[in-house]
Design brief:
mainly alpha; rod-shaped; 2 strands; 75% helix; two-stranded antiparallel ribbon
């Protein structure tokens, strides 16, 4: 009521203007009321009330107009503002997901929406997702390699090479060249080509395995020794006995250092060095290395083991050679 009195006092000097504004306001309100039926009924009821009510002074009319203005202003302030987003229809219903969304007046495609959503993915979650995908790919590569090795044992070398190549391709894509598993794929390919008597291709794959193996495995690792060993066998099969002996002795040195001088791998390497000397028609050198291999194999594997028997037959053969 204090506010009303203050307004009343401030309006007294302009009494005529206020009455003029009140008349214009009432005329405008009557026009707006006539535009709707509900407004017409309400205005009619108000007019009936005013006709029944006693006559009012100009000051009372002015005060009534002021009250109406104040009430309208308060209603406008209390009405919450409604923000219309582009993701809603004019009826206020959410738009269905479609091939585009509107952000700031710009239409975005699904790929752009995906890129935008990636901004809200935590780095840890993204890294876990990437690691899971890599792990799944590497498991598939391992399965291809095992399948290739199984086909190799069955004698299906063409099928084995095809599966081993699939494994190698995945590993190169996921973990790159300088990784132990990639070097292992090259090694398995070299062994498969050797058994298929594709010696040139076997030599190529084994050299790649050795180059990577000395980096990722180390120069004195057992896998590096196995690669030297397989290279020696391929060179012997190609008739390059001197180089074969050289590669086999590198393998022998690592096996003796890591596994011991009486290990099966050591004996097998000595056996193939004996084969290289036999290929050179050096019977003495062949018998020396066959004899060392036989001693280890008889002690570790037994005299009736197939490897022991094979070494023994070669010793017997070279001892019976004429002229020796």
């Amino acid at each position: 009521m204090a506010k009303k009195k203050n307004v009343k006092k401030s309006k007294k000097p302009k009494k005529e203007e206020s009455s003029h504004s009140s008349s214009s306001s009432s005329s405008s309100s009557s026009r707006s009321d006539s535009s709707s039926d509900s407004g017409s009924s309400s205005s009619g009821s108000s007019r009936s009330k005013s006709s029944n009510s006693p006559s009012r002074t100009p000051q009372e009319e002015e005060e009534e107009v002021i009250e109406e203005v104040i009430e309208e202003e308060s209603n406008a302030q209390n009405t919450p503002s409604i923000t219309t987003y582009s993701t809603y229809t004019p009826n206020g219903e959410p738009l269905p997901l479609s091939s585009s969304q509107n952000y700031g007046g710009k239409q975005l495609t699904d790929s752009e929406m995906h890129k935008r959503s990636l901004r809200f993915v935590s780095p840890g979650a993204a890294k876990r997702s990437t690691n899971d995908a890599m792990e799944a790919d590497l498991q598939i590569a391992q399965q291809y390699q095992e399948l290739g090795k199984a086909l190799k044992l069955k004698g299906d070398y063409a099928g084995a090479v095809m599966e081993l190549m699939k494994s190698l391709k995945i590993r190169k894509r996921v973990i790159g060249n300088e990784h132990p598993d990639t070097a292992s794929s090259y090694y398995e390919l070299g062994v498969c080509h050797c058994q298929a008597q594709n010696y040139e291709q076997s030599l190529t794959e084994l050299k790649r395995a050795l180059t990577l193996g000395r980096i990722v495995w180390g120069r004195t690792h057992e896998d590096t020794a196995c690669t030297y060993f397989q290279l020696g066998i391929v060179l012997n099969a190609m008739g390059d006995y001197d180089r074969g002996i050289r590669e086999l002795r590198k393998a022998l040195q690592i096996f003796e250092a890591n596994l011991g001088k009486d290990h099966e791998a050591t004996a097998r390497t000595l056996h193939h060095i004996g084969d290289a000397f036999a290929g050179k028609n050096d019977t003495t050198g062949a018998l020396i290395h066959y004899g060392k291999a036989f001693t280890i194999q008889a002690a570790k594997l037994g005299r009736h083991n197939p490897q022991t028997l094979e070494t023994f037959r070669k010793i017997e053969h070279h001892m019976r050679k004429p002229g020796d």
